[in-house]
Design goal:
Length: about 325
């Protein structure tokens, strides 16, 4: 009898290509359509105090309460349940923050009974496994990755082994595990990019989706949600931010604007190259709509913004150079004694 049980355990679990083909899957199932896939690992990263935790709480509250959408995207939360693992805020802080956000969301307390907060991270994988076996969820938010991973963030192999446990957990319970992570120092001086994440390339490699959240360079009430990696998303999702309004109650609203990544930094390293590409395509007779399509932007307005910003910056530089020349000439004058 024991021998038969061992044989069953040693059998390799597989699914045939025929079975997969006959499922006729034309779209990736999503919990937030089409942004967040229903199963697997995803990550939202950013600098400190840009609103990442508020974003995740806002997301969970909307999924669990049965709202139809979140920041302009449809919600497909079949279970209407979520787990939020908090390593940075305690019960008192989270209680305060939930009440603050609920001033905007207006959710009845009873509707949030299936949003469970975990503050003790001892034996977390095992505890999450048990919790979801008894009560399956749509999403598990881990806030924050760096507090749970105790080794060097630069050791790619170790990072992948650590994340693989969570990947197996997500597959086993058919849910999304969404990590909060941080970007490296001074990355806001560069355009949004998956390489901005703190630590090794192994982190973004294990994620099917990576988003970077950053504050607008001129208006702190505006935030930019940037998809910097999306295995299941079209290229039009990955070159422009989704501009969000961050309310005084720490919730997010979609403004409907898309902003090119190159326009989100003060010093635009990639602006010249993009600008020259646009000008070359114009010489070829392409319309703004066609140029936007060719460059992976959602609309021609993003192309116009990029051109306007670059030409404005260039005119400032020319003006600055002229001022320097005039100052130099003044300094060269002989002052009589």
């Amino acid at each position: 009898m024991e021998e038969n049980n061992m044989e069953e355990l040693n059998k390799v679990q597989y699914v045939s290509g025929k079975e997969l083909l006959l499922r006729k899957m034309e779209d990736i199932p999503c919990v937030i359509n089409p942004l967040l896939q229903k199963v697997g690992l995803a990550c939202i990263a950013g600098s400190s105090d840009c609103g990442k935790s508020s974003f995740l709480r806002n997301l969970c509250m909307c999924i669990v309460s049965g709202k139809s959408g979140f920041i302009g995207f449809g919600i497909n939360g079949e279970r209407r349940k979520a787990i939020y693992v908090s390593t940075e805020d305690d019960e008192v802080a989270v209680g305060y923050l939930l009440n603050k956000q609920n001033k905007d969301l207006q959710i009845d307390a009873e509707e949030l009974k299936e949003l469970r907060f975990v503050f003790d991270t001892t034996n977390l994988i095992s505890n999450l496994d048990n919790m979801m076996s008894e009560n399956p969820v749509d999403v598990v938010c881990i806030d924050a990755l760096t507090d749970l991973y105790g080794k060097s963030m630069n050791e790619s192999n170790q990072v992948r082994v650590f994340l693989n446990e969570y990947s197996q957990l997500a597959q086993r319970h058919q849910c999304l595990i969404l990590f909060l992570h941080h970007c490296g120092k001074r990355t806001e001086e560069a355009a949004p990019n998956k390489n901005n994440l703190l630590g090794s390339q192994g982190i973004e490699a294990k994620m099917r989706l990576v988003m970077e959240l950053r504050t607008d360079i001129t208006n702190p009430t505006l935030k930019h949600l940037c998809v910097v990696k999306g295995n299941y998303l079209p290229s039009t999702s990955k070159h422009e931010s989704y501009q969000l309004r961050f309310t005084e109650n720490m919730t997010f609203e979609n403004t409907g604007e898309r902003i090119p990544f190159e326009s989100l930094v003060k010093q635009d390293d990639g602006g010249k190259q993009k600008y020259e590409q646009i000008k070359e395509l114009q010489k070829q007779g392409l319309s703004m709509e066609k140029i936007a399509e060719r460059m992976g932007y959602a609309s021609k307005s993003s192309v116009s913004r990029l051109v306007t910003k670059f030409e404005k910056n260039q005119s400032k530089e020319i003006s600055f150079e002229c001022d320097d020349e005039e100052s130099s000439e003044e300094n060269d004058e002989v002052v009589p004694f």
